[in-house]
Amino acid sequence: MKFKKSFEKAMLESKIMIEDYIFKCSNRTSPSHFTRSGKMGFKETILFMLNMINKSLQVELNNFFEVILKRKDTISKQAFSENRQKINPNAFIELNDRIVDVIYKECDEYKLWNRYRLSAIDGTTIELPNTETLRNEFGYAKNQHASVAIARASASCLFDVLNKIVIKSKIYRFETSERKIAMELISEMKKDSSIKELILLNRGYPSSELISTLIESNIYFVMRLKNNVFKKKINAEKHDQIIEITHNKKVYKVRVIRFHLTSEIEEVLVTNLFDESMKIEDFKELYFKRWGVEIKYDELKNRLEIENFTGITKIAIEQDFYASIYLSNMIELARKDSDEIAKVERENKETKYEYRANLNILIGSLKDKLIMMYLEENPRKRNKIYKEIMQKVSRSSIPIRPNRQNPRIKRIARGKYKKIKNVVCRFK
Fold first, then answer.
1. Are 48 and 25 part of one and the same domain?
2. Which domain holds residue 390?
3. Looking at the 3D structure of the chain, how many domains does it have?
4. Res. 191 pLDDT band, cuts 50 70 90
5. What is the C-alpha to C-alpha distance for residues 52 and 345, in angstroms, rounded to an integer?
6. Which among 308, 319, 311, 310 has a CA at the least distance from the CA of 29?
7. 20 to 30 A from 107, CA-CA: which of 151, 170, 190, 333?
8. Handedness of CA 183, 184, 187, 189 (dihedral sign)
9. Domain boundary pick from 296, 318, 353
10. Three-state secondary structure call for residue 307
11. Which of 1-15, 119-133, 246-260 has the lowest mean pLDDT?
């Protein structure tokens, strides 16, 4: 199955799940919720939260009822804030899990590295609306210039760096151990004997416990080491060596690779890839593919606006976070389809570069229209909406210039999103 079919399949699977009675029952916070028909039921509430909200909440609600639902009535932002408390954030995790299954089980075009699914685990800090409730729920950071407490959360994801798909994600209290989150991500991975896993991790992760967990789970890894980790076991004169580490009285063999960057800074990697045909340069090239997860966080924060929360309760933060992760994967599937269309259109033209969809235009084009496709029962009309989006986006493709340096992603100053002030919520 091609990626276009993957998008269509993912969309249909999502539609079926959202309309499923069992899905509703398992993802409402009380059996008494959504038992009566109202202005905004379970399905409508889910779809509204998937509509990439970027304006004031009341404006978005009015638009949702008028443009998408084709209704003259609406609800207040207070009523929506009450409604969303009835939905478990796990609903969005389940939606994402399903489309990830579609990609890897039913699509034959996804990329592998030497027959491995190449993923990276990395964490990031999420800026939250700075309320006392959220500081208590998620924790906070102190301003470096003053003793001002700023609400923050820690997030992490398992990201397929070749296919640009978020396989698993987590949001936790601020400064939760990266290793702890990584262990949970690994434990929740769906084990598929047909897929060989290879995970890249940066220098905040290595420990004998995590390494033993990965080895026992038959997962391959490449981790960057801090200079003081396993220092006594590593021979400083060897650039490629095997060492032994111990955890819970069990001994594990790992391979240690050392090399210098152009800046003369030494990098040390640890791995359970023992293939002798893989040389130091191969590991160097492999590890730097981890940069894809940094780019994904940049997209999530600055294009999808994952920190632009629409509520000020713990449940609202988790809903918005996991909804954004799901949307990022749907957008990636649509982007792959658009790229293929652009490629076909340029087959007989002399072009210097390959072209990719303009992500901002793609996101803007899917706003409202994605939800309309979920609501449309007629397959021909649904396909017409999608075709119009793809034609518009493919015309706006931009060139990919090779060998461009990736600057380190800069942190955005706090207070980037202000509209949260306008969100009225009784659950403070």
1. yes
2. 3-89+310-402
3. 2
4. confident
5. 29
6. 319
7. 170
8. negative
9. 296
10. coil
11. 1-15
